[in-house]
# Entry
Amino acid sequence: MERVVEMMTFAKVVQMKSFSAAARELATSKSLISKQISALESSLGVRLLNRTTRSMSLTESGAAFYEHCARIAHAIEEAEQTVTQLQAAPRGVLKITTPVIFASLQLAPALQTFLKRYDQVQIDLDTTDRVVDLVEEGFDLAIRITGSPHPTMVARKIASVRWATCASPAYLKRHGTPRTPQELLQHQCLVYQGVPAPHSGWRYQVGGKHVTLPVSGRCRVNSSEVMLQMALNGMGIVLFPTYVLGAHLKKGRLVQILSDFEARSDSSLYATYMPTRYMQPKVRAFIDHLIEHFGPEPDWDRF
# Structure
């Protein structure tokens, strides 16, 4: 690294044609400039500059070496400018990971308006229901639905997440409507399995207390989208966030049950990212955009 500094100093001296002018440009002393050039010549074993009290000129070796130093100095300046530009305005590739069904139902419209707003940003979107290691897999941020964000991550709340217990009108007509969470134990419940690992049951507030029920059914599925379709087809009862169910509840394809019992009240939608002193503008802009897009009461809760 010290050699690179000396090479950049040498390039600046040649460019300015003066030790004094180079010192002013680099905000340092003429004596330090002289020491850096002498150290460079000593390490290379050649004289780079012919200098007297009145003039300075390049030696043959100095002229050849300057071409390389000038290219390196220019490349470093360009790199610095690139970083400065990236920090000044949202630009570059934004790598995001998010649950599959949230991406398809809710995130896609938000991405469309974000990309119109910031035309210098590109999106790399990975949709998966597994928990991704942001550092190891090179993601800028993750959209997570959780009640307890990982303590090593920065988590900014985007919106609250309500959960609703639902079934199709056809299922309720055949099997009846549960009136209490405990009655779910006598019904066919569609249970999620896979990564992340499922909770041990469905959680409700009953009489001011949290109750976890070991619901079961004939179908266990590792795809939220498949579970939703099965519920629409009358195959069982589901417990899903309202961002999944909202449109179907509005149109009557699904019916909310147990609305007097709050389910999984600890969940929220978070944007999570690694802590860093210099937050990239593209990350900040995207999080701000999501908060603005979904608002204090997301559209999916208006049913």
Remarks:
- The chain has three domains: 2-88, 93-153+269-293, 163-257.
- The chain has a mean pLDDT of 86.
